Amino acid sequence: MDATDRLVMPRAGWSTPQRVRALRIGIVVTILVAWEAVAASGLLFRDVVPSLVAIGRALGRLLTDAAFYWNLGVTGAEIGGAVLIGGVSGLAVGLALGANRFLARAYEPFIYYLGPTPKIIFFPIMIMWFGVGSGSKVAMGALSCFFPIAISAAAGMREIDRVLIRVGTSFRASPWQMVTKIYLPALRRPLVNGIRLGLGIAIIGTLLAETKLSNRGIGYLIIQSYSTFDMPKMYALLIVLFVLAIGANALIGRFAGADTSSLDRGRPR
Amino acid sequence: MTARLANSRLAAALTGFGTLVAILVLVEALIRGGAINRFIVPLPSQVLVAIPRIIAEENVLHRLWETAREALWASVLIAVVGIALGILLYRFRLLRSATETWVAALASAPIVLMYPLFLVIFGRSAATIIAIGFVAGLPPVILKTLEGLVGARQVLIDVGRSFKLTDRQMFWKILLPAALPSIFVGLRLGLIFALINIVGVEFLINFGGLGQLINDLAERYDLPATYGAICFVILVSIVFFILMERIERWMRPID
Amino acid sequence: MTSPIPTGGNPTAGVLLSVDHIVKRFTTAEGVITALDDVSLAVAPGEFVSVIGPSGCGKSTLFNIMGGLVGDYEGRVAVGGETIAGTHPAIGMVFQEESAFPWRTVIQNVAFPLEIAGVPKGERLERARHFVGLVGLDGFERRLPAELSGGMRQRVAIARTLASSPRILLMDEPFAALDEQTRLLLGDKVLQIHQQLQQTTLLITHNITEAVQLSDRVLVMTYRPGTLKRVVDIDLPRPRTSEVVGSDAFGHYVARIWSDLREEASRGIREEETRTLGHGATR
User: Fold this and answer.
1) Which of A129, B216, B251, C104 has the fewest CB atoms in 10 Å of its CB?
2) Dihedral of the CA atoms A205, A206, A211, A215 (nearest 10)?
3) Which part of chain C is CATH 3.40.50.300?
């Protein structure tokens, strides 16, 4: 029995998009119902799976709490600083490495092999250098997102269709014109993707640092709810966090013109 | 390789390495000269000396084994569950259309931030660490398995049809082999994601192998040792990454 | 309706582009390769010259040298008597690969050289529109290259180069990636443009029919090291209608050029095989 058969001979009145939506709703509803059942049954350690009502209430309390927004602001500012510092430096280094083969051979291995290492282990050093306040969190976030952004920028630089550069040269464009009229437009998609990736990683780096050692920010709130065993609040915080993170990612994607893949090489879809 | 090409590669490598050495020497000089506070940045020479000391005193091999064990468990779970789900999503188109974007969103979501939740559920134990590793490494395996199956070249499928293969034969003899390279890429990614998160969470919850080592030394205020441990863990991570790349290249001789 | 285009070996109506004794060597992993060995040619104003040769004869290298994108060679390239080094505004280049900027519309692409030169917006769009019409893309000004076919994208590239009003148009196998029918149609279009603008053109191609159909002279190159093997004057009336293309004379020209080319192409294939075998033996 192959489910695809049903698609070929559709039931009356149910188009594929409708069925997809129905299935999604079905999955979500099933999960929620199962959750509530587990919560009510007391099977697991009581508060590990709190009832949806409790979570909802905690969410409501959270969103109406001024302190929450203040902490959100702190975290937001830290992430912003991290993306700025890590992003700009990553971009500069990445573009330089992408442009110059010698520099790339000399220094790119460092970035490439340091990339897939857990940056949070640098946190003790960050604390020593930047103190226990927001500085060390920004540093952590910046360090984390520097690498993927640099790697994306270098790759993007290299992927630029060489013929486009030659066109610019053959028309005798000045260096400034080459940068603004050819390099930047050609780099747009790799750069945007790199920043999306960098943002996600900066969020992780900054928040992990907050959970380890901080007295403010969303990470701090999460660990606080852990130590006070306020599970509904922890779930509420995690929900807000994930919604914001995934939302920010989607927003950047939308803003950058989601499907630009076909435009890059001028090939029809 | 002509002499010129080899020379230029050598020159680049030397430049890179040389820059690193030069920076370390500079830092050493600045600290000795008092420009940098030696209680914030230890002498690089001391850090260098601390590394063998750590290896001798801190039972590093055992810790390495701890981390490796956690990674092994996570990998097995990731492989079994990930590939199975990937195949499931391939077979059931409707399910795929419904959930593929969710899995992709999960891949970029900050899953590791859920570790306090897992702490509550599993306590301060290896289970928490393995759980985070599993959740972090799962999405790429699912996605790459799916991608490999969907991306099997149509002409290969047509060949199977022309030989009147049954659904089952089609799957085992054509689809799965065609998807294997992609699956391996997924497994490598998943393993790397898992490992990064495993070591990170070890550090955060102060339990386990290498991550805990750094935490211990940091809390003891043994500065050179802390820096040394971090260097050591970074080295292990790099070696592991290179190993993974070699293995993958060895498994794909035709490229 | 014919135009006074000079035919004959050495054009007497003045020389617009002259290439003298170009020698170009490359250092590669296998040692020093001589891509071009003493290549000389001359193009008169309004002439349409094709350079044809087997793969590996250095045609694209010659193209890049004439266009000023490649340096470090012996010999001299001159436009209107003036030696050039590097890119020159009098020379326009159309590349083999797709080169329309994917992020600019058709009209923006064509206006690009004018934009570089600092022509104000209104005027340059006006002028660009003229060239868009010239290549037959009226109505497509606001489209993006992704929405166009391969042939149309090449037309954008050609219009863009024409918009810079080059005295000499260099084209490196611009139709290589297109299917036969599109090639033929674009070939007609290029003929039209040449007629209308009296544009001096040098076309690099490997397609003999195309070369004979479009050109006043065909220069046949040898396999590496590339040098001029033969100059064939195409003494056929213009415009080159389908009648002309179907005529016996046309066929004779094609046959003659092919016999020269075949020799070089065979030599090329044999040398490639020897090289591949050689590599295999040392592996």
Assistant:
1) B251
2) 160
3) 24-90+167-256
